[in-house]
Amino acid sequence: MIRNGNVHLTINGNVYLTITELERRLPIYLTCVGKWKNQYPITRQNDYPDYQWIQCTSGQGVLKSAGMQYSIKAGQGMLLYPYEAHEYYATEEPWGVWWLSFNGTQAPSMLRTLQFEGTQVMHVTHPEPLIDKFALLQSRAALSEQINSVECSGIVYNMILDLYRYGALTDIQSRQRYYTQLTPALKLIEEKHHLPLTLGDIASSLGVSEQHTCLLFQKTFGMRPFAYVTQVRLRKAKELLLRAPELPVSEVARSVGYEHTSYFIHLFKQKENRTPQQFRNYS
Fold it and tell me: Which residue of 31, 93, 95, 203 has the lowest C-beta tally within 10 Å?
């Protein structure tokens, strides 16, 4: 099908796009997307130019790359880097998969920033959002209208963030890596918890975007940045309540960053199941 200068080839619902100058100007663009009820064997040398994400929905298969062999089953997927030789095939049929290929001037830096370094297999704790986006991406790509290139770019971008958000940490080293990356922000919060910190302040300490800051905190602590700030402030408040029993609760609140005493008491009781004064009296 040809519309507005774009050429899209659709085979069995799978969409293969001819990339125009419009797509090449996008930071990330889709090159093809589809679904197989039973993935057939693939062997590629180092000549495939795009990144790929292949999400397994049923059965089981094997990926071979760089001398390593990985098993992939439902709930898992594989991120394949361009120009890396690889082979994959089913070991338990039907091996159902969704798949897409993408590229773009910002694709390498985005994946590197999110620490997706090289071909790898990931376990996705919540695959449903990804699968929903696969279906949406397939339907949008098939329309072959230029404006859909921009929409597809946004969907692919959000799918990469979903991989970062829902990709399971597989070992302690991974968590330690994220923690190390957060160290400047943790130091800032520890030292300036009493000030009206913003998400921009925290992100600036890391030199990354606010969205990426939120993802780092989620990956490391399972909470958003300001949930962590609240945790630090309440810890400091408990220390102060016990260390300075003569200090009014209102002063304790201000000392840890809360101008409104009533809000501080409400938050403290919500988290500790008792008021600051009860904590002080019975600790």
Answer: 93
Question: Which residues have C-beta within 8 Å of that of residue 81, sequence separation ≥ 6?
Answer: 51, 118, 119
> And the tokens for 266?
């409400």
Cα distances (Å, whole numbers) of residue 117 to 28, 109, 126, 232:
17, 10, 21, 32
The amino acid at 75: G
Contacts of 157 (CB under 8 A, 6+ apart): 27, 28, 110
Q: ω before 94 within 30° of 0 (cis)?
A: yes
Residues contacting 185, CB < 8 A, separation 6+: 202, 205, 206, 213, 225
Which single residue is written with the structure tokens 């102060």? Answer: 240
Burial of 98 (0-12, 13-18, 19+ CB in 10 A): buried
Rg (alpha carbons) of the chain, rounded to whole number = 24
pLDDT tens profile 186-218: 999 999 999 999 999 999 999 999 998 998 888
70, with CB counted inside 10 A (0-12, 13-18, 19+), is middle
Distance CA 221, CA 230 (A): 13
Q: What are the pLDDT digits (tens) for 3-58?
A: 333 446 667 778 888 888 888 889 999 999 999 999 999 999 988 999 999 999 99
With 0-12 / 13-18 / 19 or more C-beta atoms within 10 angstroms meaning exposed / middle / buried, residue 51 is buried
